[in-house]
Write a structure and sequence with these properties.
By secondary structure, the chain is of the alpha+beta class. Among the domains are: about 5-35; about 125-245, Photosynthetic Reaction Center, subunit H, domain 2 (Photosynthetic Reaction Center, Chain H, domain 2, Alpha-Beta Complex), CATH 3.90.50. The protein is built from three helices and 13 strands; from the N terminus they run ββαββββαβββββββα. The strands form four sheets. Strands 7, 8, 9, 10, 11, 12 and 13 form a seven-stranded mixed β-sheet that branches. It has a two-stranded antiparallel ribbon with strand order 1-2. The chain is elongated and about 90 Å long.
């Protein structure tokens, strides 16, 4: 019974508490190593392995089968996917100081305009269908609240009309407008560009995009496939507008 001593002062209560502490220590070790499947091993600011990798070892490789026939992913091996040869230079020899762009930061995708190399495939919903599509290809959707931006002129940071809204890209499962499709005026470029909805302000007679100068709309990254937006496309487009807030 409880309190009966097995040997010395070690009884059933002692066995229970020690079993709990051993289990808890093992749980912490397991959770911490599983948490290291992304972002490890650590690197210094020059991209070399960091001297202090921490007290926990990297976990063994684990392969995950991706849904919808999209192959597999093995982590931590190959999980980093970092971009190489970034157009940045140190501003000071000591660690902790910012890196400065060496070229056009928006075109190079650094600083506030930086982007991560996400997979170049569209995001899918729970039924395996593409989530974000043009409204012209989804006739079941319409603008039911607020101002309909279709046909409105789009003004840049310097109050130039750079084009007109000709389509809306909707997130079908969420029933939200994610992007405005803008057909550019000839003096500002050719074709269409997408504007993330959070970066646009819809006014009664126009749409304001305050983060980009009129000369910058022609450089907005375009989707690699017509009528389809991949995760990488979204990353680059959003980064361009975010970087424009500082650089444009």
């Amino acid at each position: 019974m409880v309190g009966v001593e097995f040997f010395g002062n070690f009884d059933l209560a002692s066995a229970a508490i020690w079993a709990f502490w051993i289990f808890f220590a093992g749980l912490i070790f397991y959770l911490q190593t599983e948490n290291m499947r992304e972002g490890f091993p650590l690197e210094d600011e020059e991209g070399n392995p960091a001297a202090n990798q921490g007290p926990f070892p990297l976990p063994k490789d684990k392969t995950f089968l991706l849904r919808d026939g999209r192959g597999s992913l093995t982590v931590p091996s190959g999980a980093r996917g970092d971009r190489d040869d970034l157009a940045l230079a140190r501003s000071n020899g000591a660690n902790g100081y910012p890196f400065l762009p060496t070229g056009d930061p928006m075109a190079d995708g650094v600083g506030p305009a930086s982007w991560a190399p996400r997979r170049d495939v569209p995001e899918l919903d729970g039924h395996g269908q593409i989530k974000i599509v043009p409204m012209t290809s989804a006739p079941e959707f319409r603008v039911s609240a607020g101002r309909d931006p279709m046909g409105l002129p789009v003004l840049s940071k310097d109050d130039q009309v750079i084009g007109h809204v000709t389509d809306l890209w909707v997130d079908k499962p969420e029933a939200l407008i994610r992007y405005l499709e803008v057909t550019l005026e000839p003096e500002h470029g050719r074709g269409t560009r997408l504007v993330p909805m959070p970066m646009a302000r819809i006014k009664p007679k126009w749409v304001q995009v305050a983060s980009l100068h009129s000369t910058r709309f022609d450089g907005v990254p375009q989707p690699g496939h017509a009528g389809q937006l991949t995760l990488l496309d979204e990353e680059k487009i959003s980064a361009w507008y975010a970087g424009g807030t500082l650089y444009s």
